[in-house]
Amino acid sequence: MTSSSIPVAIPEDILPDLSDKKRRSKKEMQSLLDATLMALDDEPGAMTIRHLCYVMESRGYIEKSERAFKTYDGHLVNWRRNGLIPWNAFIDNTRWGYGRSGYDGLEDALIQSRNAYRRNLWADLPVYVEIWTEKDAIAGVLLDAADPYGVKVLPLRGFASLSMLHSAAATFREMTRRGKEVFVYYFGDHDPSGRLIDPSALRSLEEDFGVSVNFERVALTEDQIRDYNLPTRPTKESSHSKKFKGRSVEIDALPMDALREMVDGTISQHIPRGWLERMKGIEAQERATLDSFVGYIQRVR
Hints:
By secondary structure, the chain is of the alpha/beta class. 46% of the residues lie in helices and 8% in strands. It has three domains: 12-89, no CATH class; 101-121 and 271-301; 129-269, Dna Topoisomerase Vi A Subunit, Chain: A, domain 2, CATH 3.40.1360. The protein is globular, with a radius of gyration of 23 Å. The model is unreliable at 1-6 and 12-20 (pLDDT under 50).
């Protein structure tokens, strides 16, 4: 993930900003930074900060507590500000806004259309697929695998709102009208709330909006927690925790590559062999047509 696994020295002038409750020495902070760079190198692609905290906890560099995770997050902030860790090492799905910037002219519009053009892989397939996730933090990780297939990733940010489910139901109803079978694959935490979010959403789709879909929880499952030997955290007391057994596990604890592979597997199973290559070939031909339009505008302007 990082540009190099060679240890990076911590400048003397930023050492005071890297202290925690136990006041780590410069040598200890250097060891923590080196271990962080190694952990980032061990997993290709960007990861969530929460996942890195679990990795560092499992390797014995930080304690398993919210305070320790928060302190470590503070170190990551300082290291990135001082160029010791690249800014793009982590997934951040929170930067978005409203509005459109427009185009500099017709040529610019055609160039952007050519560059952004993608043929709908699913237009002639009898299925429609979406990926849902409880947490905004991992949406970017899931999108890494879903986007090449043109599949949407929807972060619910906890329990899905009725407005969101109403919109989803309208989409699913339209896809059903077109003769498509709808599949929704869900990724969420294993904790009292996390285990209730997906059945609650499915129940609302059926009871409030009269829509039935194929809905599957891909992660987290108890089998995955056991197979990956995932770290747990204390279960928070709430109205949802009374019937929940065992300790809680966050989906961020899963290896990021494992999450991407799960998404790839759930989507690719619906695509006939050779279909993706065929669609990419057609897309390339159609993009070349757009390219000829750009060339024409450039010649006559």
